[in-house]
Amino acid sequence: MVEDKKVIKPYNEEGATKKEEVAEMFNNISRRYDFLNHFLSLGIDKIWRKKAVKQLKQLNPEYILDIATGTGDFAVALLKLNPKAITGIDISSGMLEVGNNKMVRRGFDDRIKLILGDSENLQFDDNHFDGVTVAFGVRNFENLEMGLEEMLRVIKTGGKAVILEFSKPKKFPIKQLFGFYSKRLIPFIGKLVSKDKRAYAYLPESVEAFPEGQSFMDIMSSVGYSNVSGIPVSGGIATIYVGTKK
Q1: CATH, residue 137
Q2: With b meaning 16 or more CB within 10 Å and e meaning fewer, what string describes 162-176?
Q3: DSSP string covering the chain, please?
Q4: What predicted TM-score, i.e. pTM, was given to this entire model?
Q5: pLDDT tens, 39-89?
Q6: Is the peptide bond before 173 cis (omega within 30 degrees of 0)?
Q7: Degrees, nearest 5: CA angle 114-19-165
Q8: 71 lies in a domain?
Q9: Which residue segment(s) compose the domain that 208 sits in?
Q10: Which is nearest to 66 in space by CA: 106, 2, 124, 8?
Q11: What is the pLDDT of residues 10-51, one digit of tens each?
Q12: What is the Cα–Cα distance from 9 to 7, expressed in whole angstroms?
């Protein structure tokens, strides 16, 4: 069993679990999330999602689950695969409200359903989905292994999990530039726009604490995924992890 050395929480409130604080944080910033997300990533996050979606293309998936769906950006990107249905779950009711309004406004609500759900206790039957995706959400899991195991449980045999997550660049000058941007500029701009002092300071802290790269791939393998791989994007600022269910 892999244990976190330290639990990184958004607000560090006494007696509150990480899951409770993450839900509170996203509720607080839900109205400004889409703007800040695309602004702070300079739009590169859209390119990353497209690359992640391609990892499921050969499966021709009919049913996809998007965990930590937020306002549904990854769910929308998954429409490129022309599935029958996409289900998005999130623990933040505020993010889901914004997301569902977006789906109705854009005419996607016939194929994309966003509902309240817990990644560590999924409300779906075994072997239910052809693919499961998570974009920038696994580092917010309170119990990483439990969440990964639940994802594996609901994937059909031969199906895949595709996980897009921030990582830490290793090479000059991307390492230094990303370090300054994520630890200085993102918290400053995020605080200014979202009015939440901690939400965008939590981002670099959670990235720093996350077991990225081979360490994360080892965890995926240990809970039962096969053919696990990691694909760095944009010089290692993020990584696309892929695992298959035997």
Answers
A1: 3.40.50.150
A2: bbbbbbbbeeeeeee
A3: ----SS---SS--TT--HHHHHHHHHHHHHHHHHHHHHHHTTTHHHHHHHHHHHTTGGG--SEEEEET-TTSHHHHHHGGG--SEEEEEES-HHHHHHHHHHHHHHT-TTTEEEEE--TTS--S-TT-EEEEEEES-GGG-SSHHHHHHHHHHHEEEEEEEEEEEE----STTHHHHHHHIIIIIHHHHHHHHH--TTHHHHHHHHHHHS--HHHHHHHHHHTT-EEEEEEEEGGGTEEEEEEE--
A4: 0.92
A5: 777 789 999 999 999 999 999 999 999 999 999 999 999 999 999 999 999
A6: yes
A7: 70
A8: yes
A9: 18-244
A10: 124
A11: 999 999 999 999 999 999 999 999 888 877 777 899 999 999
A12: 6
Q: Is residue 7 included in any domain, yes or no?
A: no
97 lies in some domain: yes
Q: How far is CA 155 from the centre of its chain?
A: 17
In a domain, 106, yes or no: yes
- Number of domains into which the chain is organized: 1
**Cα–Cα nearest to 52, from 239, 244, 246, 245:** 239
